[in-house]
Amino acid sequence: MRPLLHDAPACDPRDRGGPLQPLLIARDLRKHFPVKGSGGKSTLARLLLHLVVPDAGELVFDGDRVNTHELPVDALRRQVQIVFQDSYSSLNPRMPVRDSVAFGPFVQGKKKQQARDIACEMLGKVGLDPDLFGPRYPHELSGGQKQRVNIARALATGPRMVILDEPVSALDKSVEAQVLNLLRTLKRQFNLTYLFISHDLNVVRYLSDRVLVMYLGRAVEIGPIDAVFERPLHPYTHALLASRPSMDPARRIEEAPIIGDPPNPIDPPPGCRFHPRCPFAEMPCEKTDPLLGTWEGPQSHVAACHMHDLAAGHSRFENV
Description:
Blueprint: E1 4-5, E2 24-30, H1 41-48, E3 56-61, E4 64-65, H2 73-79, E5 80-83, H3 97-107, H4 112-125, H5 130-133, H6 143-155, E6 161-165, H7 173-190, E7 193-197, H8 201-207, E8 210-215, E9 218-224, H9 225-230, H10 235-242, H11 283-287, E10 302-303
Helix pairs in contact: 3-4, 3-6, 4-6
């Protein structure tokens, strides 16, 4: 399960485009790497922030094209921040926590004391006493505390969107639950839009309004969270959901919901990238790469599958 988007309420005074204006649009983004590289969900997160410069495609933030006179990259980063998976390597080991959080506001023009005041406020917002934790260094904090610092640092610049790249996958379950509850609270408090990346399907459902499923670097399904979880359209999504462990011993998984290994991402198969592992694959799947259906708003539920395209000629066509 892959990148997740949350809609911020339309009452935000910074929202110039109205309630139907998507906050962020990505069109045909492409990035080519040397042979050892790969393209996936984390690469997409970095492309959205121009931490990795795309080779092609277009980003539109609240109606303005990114990296043009309409919205320079620096202006984008004032409104979009990111929290990485590795909480320790994201922090400067030689810098006290307070200064790490204050660095963003300081770079954006705040005076040193103003930036430190913002840092103390944000540390408090994420549940860390600024007087106790502010002077500490990253090695003096637990994993959950370091991730709270990273969240505070992301919020210190006053963003409208926060990209969260597997932010809780390295935490134990009790700490993970605390951080997830914190993220939900902060979303409401700061009127934020989240783009949340995770492999954990339970986390996905707990935190998300809509979900985008990716396979081998391609978007294969997108829709409201309940629709995707209760009626998946793509065979890969169905296999993902079927792989979840059951809490009921009478509903044990007897057979693997998906077989085979993922193809080489450097040399993907022709046609649908999932067809070598798909139980419903037919000739059209081997020859033609299916297109993601037309997205028509937050309630749209579409998939890139020939079984939902009448023109593809699949024998199991289903009109959704």
